[in-house]
């Protein structure tokens, strides 16, 4: 999903999207018990200070009990000094996620994540229904909502469908277009 969001953002002229991952907070033993997938070795870890370099954001994370995973929450907690200065205020931010199943918090995860953006003064950019007919697809299992792109991961073995990946691409492009417009001089 993250690579499709990045691909969509990079499809916008004059936009360069960078893929980052937040630092891991759980031990290898716990990660093995959770059957967590291996971290991508071609994606660097981000520090809170690197957020200052961006013109916009699309944050993606798995859901745990209807909220963002603890690793991502710990990352946001580490941004307190940036929050104090409101250095991210006015920057657009979208959200995408994965949950285990239908009752796993598809919309609740997004709603609880918005609080992180609000404290920083970031502008939440929901997907709305800009994905068109793909938003209303009822013939296949599809994650996501008007809050952002999403997928159902089941026990971690389910891969995003083509439709979910198209929605992720669309969200990347959509948020990048808004970030570019906000950065452009009047």
TrEMBL record:
Record-annotated Flavodoxin-like domain positions: 1-175
Coiled coil: none
InterPro entries noted in UniProt: Flavodoxin/NO_synth (IPR008254), Flavoprotein-like_sf (IPR029039), Flavoprotein_WrbA-like (IPR010089), FMN_Rdtase-like_dom (IPR005025)
Cofactor(s) recorded in Swiss-Prot or TrEMBL: FMN
Enzyme Commission number, as recorded: 1.6.5.2
Gene Ontology molecular function terms on file: FMN binding; NAD(P)H dehydrogenase (quinone) activity
One Gene Ontology cellular component annotation held by this UniProt entry: membrane
Protein origin, superkingdom: Eukaryota
Reactions catalysed: a quinone + NADH + H(+) = a quinol + NAD(+); a quinone + NADPH + H(+) = a quinol + NADP(+)
Signal peptide: none
Family: Belongs to the WrbA family.
Protein name as it appears in the record: NAD(P)H dehydrogenase (quinone)
